[in-house]
Amino acid sequence: MIHKLINRPEFKFLLVGGSVTGLNFILYSGLVEFIRPTFWGMESRTSSQIICWPALVMLSFLLNKSFVWQSTKRKRDTIVQFFVLYVITGLVIQPWVIHYSFFAFDAVPVLKGHLYTCNLLAWCLSVGIGMIANFLGGRYMFKKTGGK
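RE: above sequence
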């Protein structure tokens, strides 16, 4: 039973996604707390997410293709779709969620002024939304032709 569970794509996606997300969190937190990049008029929370994204999306593509979905499709047949999906989630949806949910969390009286906590909650919410979108997109693009 455990063997069946750990071989399911949902479990593998959570394992890969959790690992890549953990690495993202470390890089993101380091940038926000110590470097504080700002560009194009964006605060460091949003800029940091955009900086972390390119390397992590390539790592995620390789792990999702080979380990999660065990796709036999050629890389060039799926990399553009994967890139577009992750551009939408990583560079549009997630920064938008971080930006607006941060202010929503900061408006909650018990969280007011606790900027680190508000930032962490905003980041976690954006990651959850991004993971759902990426799982559904990955399941579609890496599905085996003629199979399940």
